Automatic annotation (TrEMBL):
Entry EC number(s): 3.5.99.6
Keywords: Carbohydrate metabolism, Hydrolase
NCBIfam families referenced in this protein's UniProt entry, alphabetically: nagB
GO molecular function term, any single one: glucosamine-6-phosphate deaminase activity
InterPro entries per record: Glc/Gal-6P_isomerase, Glucosamine6P_isomerase, Glucosamine6P_isomerase_CS, NagB/RpiA_transferase-like
Pfam families cross-referenced by the UniProt entry: Glucosamine_iso
Identification of the protein by name: Glucosamine-6-phosphate deaminase
Keyword Hydrolase included in the entry's annotation: yes
Top-level taxonomic group: Bacteria
Family assignment from sequence similarity: Belongs to the glucosamine/galactosamine-6-phosphate isomerase family. NagB subfamily.
GO biological process, alphabetically ordered: carbohydrate metabolic process; glucosamine catabolic process; N-acetylglucosamine catabolic process; N-acetylneuraminate catabolic process
Amino acid sequence: MDRMNMQENPVLGLATGSTPEGIYQGFIQEYNKGKVSFKNVTTFNLDEYTGLKKDDPNSYCYFMNEKLLRHIDIAMERVHIPSGTAVDLKSECLKYERAIERAGGIDIQVLGIGENGHIGFNEPGASFSSRTHVVDLADSTIQANSRFFKSVDEVPKQAISMGIQTIMDSKEILLLISGEAKADAVAKLLEEEVSEDLPASILKKHANITVIIDEAAFKGTLSASF
Ligand SMILES: O=P(O)(O)OC[C@H]1O[C@](O)(CO)[C@@H](O)[C@@H]1O
């Protein structure tokens, strides 16, 4: 928050999922206290399901509005979330990359991690050189995210996601890891080499990353070496 205040026009990369909700609550609290304004903040979200309309309660657009955007003074024209209902998804991805470039790149990217080590929706096997693209969701991701849907069959099978290179181009990354369900991914991160089989492993090569992890996700592995 302090660093955000220091910059005149910060560009924030935002994530969805349960993990960053506390940060968004913090933003809203600081805004309500009059300590921070989001008027000059530009945001880019990591990803969006394909096929869900913006007002679908399971879309990431809806999530962002509910959890953060409608509570603060951000200018909606500065908010960027890929459109999962665009007629031409490929050109939507290109448009998104260009918009990030035009904004001068992402200053701080807030990031979570999937149970299978995905970042954004870049599943195991995704190329480290990928840019914003349409992805097929892994079965394990569909299962994990089915908790938000009425049934697993309703979970979209595809999404638009910033690519791994897009994420790595962020000037700074804040990686948040919470809960026992992430413990295996964390153990692999600590033990295994950097490999496309574990998308989050590339983060070890980022020059400016902060990791905040809770005890449950850490599961007693006390010799982290990022
Ligand atoms: O924080 P959660 O709900 O475990 O989500 C894990 C990750 O999966 C995604 O939702 C997929 O986009 C990430 O953005 C998120 O960090």
